[in-house]
Design brief:
4-stranded mixed sheet; 8% strand; 17 helices; 14 strands; 2 domains; disordered C terminus
């Protein structure tokens, strides 16, 4: 007897990669008592039929709005040609107020110039992020020199210097720094320390000019690796003569980075997009997430919606993707090129139509618990690879959600600019991280994934400290200008990004003198601003 086998029909017990997809989900018995609470939490109807009806109404509304926009046929905007071809003109450069550049230069002249070590000492004095770097064995006593040693290790890892070189330059024995790194630096402690900085930055008044913290974005950043590493891979586009790894760092619209993970450079980044958002341990109220094309999978569109989030990618060749309708075909004067949905997600077999929400519920439930961050982590890969009924339903629902998003994105230029601006913020943070990790030509020397993860968390922590320090001192500078009668609009401040780091230098010998640094602060805990380069009085 011949039996037809498909991908997903054979499973390996005990395997993470080839396990039964159902083992990743909540069981029906565990899902039933949580269903109402979960649906209320994410703002979705309990019954699948009601949820699909609401989604269908949303789809029709979005398509009608797009068709109305296309019917105008305005030159320079998204439009249809007489042949039915969808034209999406590129966005023009964002209109930055002329006074923004002048103000940025003026503030740079007013802010103090400090080394990265001084930034860490100052930010720690206000956030106490080093208190979250706790001993792995539960040791409570913290010697007086521990905070200094912690900062030396952060600097060594963030700047990509080895501990031995740092020890030679700072005078602290290598074995002391190595012991500190071994016992106090772990992904969970570094994540908690980073959250303390991000939360403090989120509460700063100047931060509100950048955004509310509800929008975030992520994009992979590649780092070359020297020597052998179990996570490094060849990728000729980025590593011409060697191997490297990728890092995924979700960035908020307030320029802060709230998660970090190291992945194999050849692995699809789309599997980690939602994990980073649900793994947010900070106070940032992230709701919407932007990516490039790499994150725009149908499974991600569905899962984002199922957990009450919005995926807003910038999709390459958006005009060539398939748009879907539900219901009977309609005749319109200038219809959007669209196809009827191939299947109804609610019609997939299963004892409970609400089972589509179970993988999303499992992922949201896991977000609050310690997470394995290994390079082979694939909590939801089966949703994009395994060909079973649940996967088909999620992909069909994802096609619907992608159509809703595409229609809104095409019809609203302001929306497109908002997404592009957020992705640009991520690119600016990539540039800051690249400048900070300058030693060894930016090539990592750590071999193992956990070591690489710890180093990248140190880089994220140092980057957020610079962003926090710059934001706070920009606020002090603006307040000083306003006291002299200067009118500085918040609209202009939105273009003064704290990723510009000309006032913080990373090179040379690093010296951490905590008492000496704190002695330079005034009674409010800040350094005095320098005299403005415009010739004004000292501030």
């Amino acid at each position: 007897m011949l039996v037809g086998l498909r991908s997903g029909d054979i499973f390996a017990p005990g395997s993470r990669r080839y396990a039964d997809p159902a083992s990743f989900l909540l069981t029906p018995e565990a899902w039933a008592p949580q269903k109402v609470e979960f649906c209320h939490l994410v703002g979705k109807p309990v019954e699948a039929t009601a949820a699909l009806a609401a989604a269908e109404d949303e789809l029709h509304t979005a398509l009608v709005d797009l068709e109305t926009h296309l019917a105008k046929g305005n030159p320079g905007e998204v439009r249809l040609t007489d042949d039915g071809e969808l034209i999406i003109p590129p966005l023009t450069a964002e209109d930055v107020p002329a006074e923004a550049d002048a103000l940025r230069a003026e503030l740079a002249g007013m802010l103090p110039r400090v080394p990265i070590a001084s930034v860490l000492v100052e930010v720690d004095a206000r956030t106490r992020f080093t208190d979250h770097l706790v001993h792995a064995g539960g040791k409570v006593a913290r010697p007086a020199e521990l905070k200094r040693n912690l900062m030396y290790v952060i600097i060594a890892e963030a700047t990509n210097m080895c501990l031995s070189a740092t020890a030679e330059s700072c005078g602290v024995p290598y074995d002391v720094l190595a012991w500190t790194a071994e016992w106090y630096f772990r992904p969970e402690t570094l994540e908690a320390a980073n959250a303390a900085v991000v939360n403090y930055h989120h509460r700063l008044p100047p931060t509100r000019a950048f955004g509310s913290g509800t929008l975030s974005s992520s994009d992979g950043q590649r780092f070359p690796v020297k020597g052998k590493s179990i996570t490094a891979r060849h990728l000729s586009r980025y590593f011409a003569r060697g191997q490297g790894v990728s890092t995924c760092t979700p960035v908020s619209d307030q320029h802060s980075t709230f998660d970090t993970r190291v992945i194999v450079a050849t692995a699809p980044e789309s599997h980690y997009v939602l994990d980073g958002l649900l793994g947010n341990e900070t106070d940032l109220p992230t709701f919407e997430h932007a990516t490039d094309t790499h994150g725009a999978t149908l499974a991600n569109f569905a899962l984002f919606d199922l957990v009450g989030k919005q995926l807003s990618p910038r999709i390459r060749d958006l005009g060539k993707i398939t748009l879907y309708r539900t219901g009977a075909p309609r005749r319109l004067p200038r219809p959007v090129p669209a196809h009827r949905a191939a299947a109804d997600p609610a019609a997939e077999p299963g004892p409970d139509h609400g089972h589509v929400g179970r993988p999303a519920a499992r992922r949201r439930q896991r977000a609050g618990r310690p997470r394995h961050r290994g390079p082979g982590r694939r909590e939801a890969v089966f949703l994009q690879r395994q060909q079973n009924a649940l996967t088909s339903a999620i992909k069909e629902y994802g096609a619907l959600r992608r159509t809703v998003y595409a229609a809104r994105y095409l019809a609203d230029e302001t929306y497109r600019r908002r997404i592009a601006r957020q992705l640009n913020k991520g690119e600016n943070l990539h540039a800051l991280r690249r400048s900070l990790a300058y030693a060894s030509e930016g090539a990592l020397r750590r071999r193992h994934h956990e070591q690489q993860t710890e180093q990248m968390w140190c880089l994220t922590l140092a980057t957020n400290a610079i962003v926090c320090w710059s934001t706070e001192y920009h606020g002090l500078g603006v307040a000083a200008l306003r006291r002299t009668g200067r009118q500085v609009d918040d609209e202009v401040l939105a273009h003064i990004w704290p990723t510009h780091h000309e006032n913080v230098h990373f090179y040379g010998t690093h010296s951490v003198d905590i008492d000496g640094e704190l002695a330079q602060l005034d009674t409010d805990g800040y350094r005095p601003l320098r005299m403005a380069e415009t010739g004004g009085a000292g501030i």
